[in-house]
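Hi support team,

I submitted a single chain yesterday and got back a structure, but I'm not sure I'm reading the token output correctly. Could someone confirm the output below corresponds to the sequence I sent? I've pasted both exactly as they appear in my results page.

Thanks,
R.
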Amino acid sequence: MLTNTEIKNLKPKEKLYRKADSHGLAIEVAVSGSKIWVHRYRYRGKATMMVLGHFPDISLLEARSKRDKNKSLLKEGINPQSQNLMSANDFESKELFEDQFKLWFNKSKNTWADSHARTVIQRAQRYLLPHIGRFPVSTITHQNILHILKSIDNKGRLDTLQKVKGIASQVFKFSIANGYTSFDPTRDIPSTLFQKKKVSHYAKITTPKLVGKLLRDIENSNLSDNIKNALLMTAHIFLRPNEIAGLLWDEVDLSESVIRIKPERMKMKRMHIVPLSIQSIKIIDQMRKISGDTEYVFPGMGKSNKHISPESLRNGLRKIGYTKEQMTTHGFRGMASTLLHEMNIRTEVIEKQLAHEESNKVKAAYNHAEYLPERFKVMQKWSDYLDSLKSNDYKKFSEDYLNE
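Hi R., thanks for writing in. Yes, this is the structure output for that exact sequence:
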């Protein structure tokens, strides 16, 4: 059991630590030097922890008295935490979940695209902060998190559930590293507690004969030149729909035959280089005549200050007879990946061209330098392959390919 002298002499360390008293009562010493009374107990067979207050505001004797009151409530079948009306103002701001979230977010956002940062904020504000934002991070239990996740699960928002759980976990890991808590309550929540997500992939065409028909259907359609050329360009360079729709003229460098997508427009907020084939350059030349002095390669109809939308590309596929079960705009990426693998192109090169970036930044930079010459060859070969499928002359392409 602890004594007042022992408690007064407890010094902060590099990480939060806890000293036990008796019957579940303990005191936590934060990195900041704050000393917080906690009571650990089991309710309905599950471990729970409740904050009782700061030392010396709450003395050792008072902390034991609060613990004993909790034990009395437990005998009556009442969870003491439900009776806890302690004000969040009793705690230093850095010890609250919402402040740990802000610290983590501000440290991480510079590595994200702006759109991803906005999504993280929106999810936290909707699902996490209203429920646990004003809780000291060290007091949040897996039951608190489970309650939040179950409410999302009940609405069938399974993608959102995983994203929210991931955000919470990152904040707890950040808090552990900085000494404000000692555990991540999301860690022991298994996915089996929630509905099973149905695996769905973007619909794509990967049969060579049907790929040729798709290209002919696009080229022979009565779609606007902007949409038609954007779809054909997507087939050749397989950027994401929003990346192709918002393509800027200042991202196109014909002197080096590349497109350099700006970091802020990429999912991983890193510049992405796309080597251009002869066929891709021809499409760009056509669009220069159409778009004139506009900022965008594919401007919106009658709106020189705006670009076409990703939805307009999808709608273009629907107008020429392709359902969402047959082909999606995003499906061009899957189509390229599948067929390039069948052509025995190295996986590393394909992944780099799809902008599936390495998490290791040093390795990513090395791969970038190593693969670019190879990617130029691959992108030209891919465009030649598409032309052969479109013209039903795949046999000649195969012979040329094998003779290289």
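A quick pointer for reading it: The chain has three domains: 1-86, 88-193, 208-402. Let us know if anything else looks off.

Best,
Support desk
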